[in-house]
Amino acid sequence: MRESDKHLKLCLKHGVIEAGCDEAGRGCLAGPVFAAAVILPENFNCNELNDSKQLTLKQRNELRYVIEENALSYSVAFCNPEEIDHLNILWASVAAMHRALEGLKILPEHIIVDGNRFKPFNEIPYSCVVKGDAEYQSIAAASILAKTYRDEYMKNLHDQFPMYDWDCNKGYPTPAHKKAIRENGITVHHRKSFNLFERQLELDF
């Protein structure tokens, strides 16, 4: 595994229990949006941690094991397509983060979130960090867990709906996925509030 070009900082605020949060699957046409929350120990140091999108599949899977073995606490949660359609993708992503935070065995004293939008969680102070998954190890760790758990989920769904190629595209709007929608229609796992026949626009978060 190659070392990241930039070494990520452990935390934003020192001397407090800090949880990093991130999500995966916002720009997909199908499947849930997943989120993770991770609390790392004060002495944790992993040079290979980085934004999950900058890592290979092999690197993400190796780092998932490192994170789960070393984190003081971690939790992964999701919002399903029906919830996404009801809340919109931004607030469904935040709701999934709240669920992940609720699943932590340790109550954080500060939360750092990748992006620029969040809602207060249990009156715990929080900071939003744009591109935080490339700045802080706990957010990067959360991005890796959210991504690997979601990919696993979509690969399992592929066995039931092989025509949509979800084992490869994970629900993202690839040409093969959009072609399958045109030919087969949509499933209960598709997000009906999304434009399912045109390319999804990039979502700022």
From TrEMBL:
GO molecular function list: manganese ion binding; RNA binding; RNA-DNA hybrid ribonuclease activity
Q: What is its EC number?
A: 3.1.26.4
Q: Which cofactor does it need?
A: Mg(2+); Mn(2+)
Would you name any one GO CC term? cytoplasm
Compartments annotated for it: namely:
Cytoplasm
Which keywords does this chain's UniProt record carry? Cytoplasm, Endonuclease, Hydrolase, Manganese, Metal-binding, Nuclease
Q: Which GO terms describe its biological process?
A: DNA replication, removal of RNA primer; mismatch repair
Has the keyword Chaperone been applied to this entry? no
Q: Where does a divalent metal cation bind?
A: 22-23, 114
Q: Which reaction does it catalyse?
A: Endonucleolytic cleavage to 5'-phosphomonoester
What function is annotated for this protein?
Answer: Endonuclease that specifically degrades the RNA of RNA-DNA hybrids.
Protein name listed in UniProt: Ribonuclease HII
